[in-house]
Amino acid sequence: MSRNLRYFVLVPLSVAAFYVLFVLPDVDLGWPGGLAVLGGAWLVWYLLWATLQESAAMAARDESAAPVSPGEQRAWIGLVFTAAIGAYYLLRGSQMVAADGSMAPEASAIGRHIGMLVVGWLVVMQLLRHRWRDTVEQDERDRQIEARACGWARVGLSVFVIGLAVMFAFSPLERLAWARPMAVANLLIVGLMASCLLEYLATGMAYWHDRRSA
Amino acid sequence: MSGTPIDNSIRKLRFEHGEMTQQALADACGITRQTVIALEGGKYAPSLELAFRIAHAFGVGVEDVFRWRR
């Protein structure tokens, strides 16, 4: 199967696997069903990972093609995992707040799922670091791109915090009934994730733009 | 990253040094191959330290590798 066709099949399947495993309401499939869903999801993600690594290896061997540097790989992987955590948080975050504004019983299960995604991210990065052990991971250009992306993220976070401060300062109290402790905590986490997402996106785009025009 | 006002002869010097690969130059200077590509394409202006490292890898002076575009 050609690599483009593999991406065409595997990318939607990976998103579907993420949705089935993390976002769908908890349906008891019994242990065989649960194991099949978990195994299927991991298989799809592994095949996508293997295809991406194959593309990276091909580009590294080809002198005429611009390779994807470790810094760019780190940025795109960070973007995918932050987007996955953000999407999950947006889809299920409201279930973390109980009717009285305190922490709902579902919050611990949602937190566990987010923890699983973070562990998955750390495992992927560890595997990549092992692969990069004989190469230069970061140089002055990578640091310059990162610093610029960090600036974008700082601006984004500042805009978010100023917006929040203005909203809380000038909204009448009756319109802030939703702002219970858990809801405000969730909002702050969403802001933090959005700034991380912006930083990874700016980093990835800077590398991609350079590579495309090389 | 936008273009820089500094021209360079890295590509020419690589070929004059036994068709040195981009990866070989990157390894000699402690940078990534993508940075070599960005330098050759005029997309990135190196620091003074990196400019000296590149010149040293070719055994020439910095002014033989980099020139200010007037």
How would you summarize the topology of this molecule?
The complex is a heterodimer of chains A (214) and B (70).
Chain A: H1 3-23, H2 30-61, H3 70-92, H4 107-131, H5 140-170, H6 181-212
Chain B: E1 6-8, H1 10-16, H2 22-29, H3 33-40, H4 48-58, H5 62-65, E2 66-68
Antiparallel strand pairs in B: 1-2
Briefly, what is this?
The complex is a heterodimer of chains A (214) and B (70). Chain A is mainly alpha-helical and 214 residues long.
Can you offer a commentary on this structure?
With 214 residues, chain A is an all-alpha fold. Helix content of chain A is 77%, strand content 0%. Chain A contains 6 helices and no strands. Chain A has helices spanning 3-23, 30-61, 70-92, 107-131, 140-170, 181-212. The longest helix of chain A is centred in the first third of the chain and has 32 residues, at 30-61. Chain A starts with a helix and ends with a helix. The model of chain A has no long low-confidence stretch (mean pLDDT 86). Chain B is mainly alpha-helical. Chain B is 54% helix and 9% strand. Chain B contains 5 helices and 2 strands. Chain B has helices spanning 10-16, 22-29, 33-40, 48-58, 62-65; strands spanning 6-8, 66-68. In chain B, α2 packs across α3. The radius of gyration of chain B is 11 Å and the shape is globular. The chains are: A mainly alpha (214), B mainly alpha (70). Chain B: Keywords: DNA-binding. Chain B: Pfam families: HTH_3. Chain B: Residues 10-65 form the HTH cro/C1-type domain. Chain B: It comes from Rhodanobacter sp. FW102-FHT14D07.
